[in-house]
Write a structure and sequence with these properties.
By secondary structure, the protein is mostly helical. The chain is built from five helices and no strands. The longest helix has 16 residues. The chain is elongated, with a radius of gyration of 33 Å.
Length: 129
């Protein structure tokens, strides 16, 4: 469940702050290509892309051309939060109960050899014997 929520939030962030949302317009690109293909069966995909992206012209379907991906760019979403200088947060201590602390030993003193821990990271004394 955490993984699904993480993917969802990351997707929403990328779509709202980058040009990734343009990829959602790909079905419009395919549909518009098929419209041109019906009018001119000899038109290849590369010719269609050159017509609409390399040398765009204002023709009869200019409104549909503007709905294609990566034709019109928009500024990404930018959120700015400021805090007023007189803002303060007051926490009342009477609402909180003290927590009981249970100390958990981090190592077993009986298992640890006293002289071993200090010398474990020393380099070897002799390379060849």
């Amino acid at each position: 469940m955490k993984k699904l929520i993480s993917i969802l939030l990351l997707s929403l962030y990328l779509i709202s702050t980058t040009e990734v949302y343009q990829l959602l317009k790909i079905p419009t690109l395919i549909e518009h290509y098929w419209e041109h293909k019906k009018l001119n069966p000899e038109m290849s995909l590369t010719a269609f892309l050159k017509t609409h992206y390399e040398n765009p012209v204002k023709d009869g379907d200019y409104g549909k051309d503007q709905k294609l991906p990566f034709v019109v760019h928009s500024a990404p979403l930018a959120l700015i939060f400021t805090v007023h200088p007189n803002f303060y947060f007051e926490a009342k201590s009477e609402n909180y109960r003290p927590l009981k602390s249970h100390k958990i030993p981090s190592k077993d003193e009986d298992f640890c050899y006293k002289g071993f821990t200090g010398s474990v990271w020393e380099p070897p004394r002799a390379l060849f014997i």
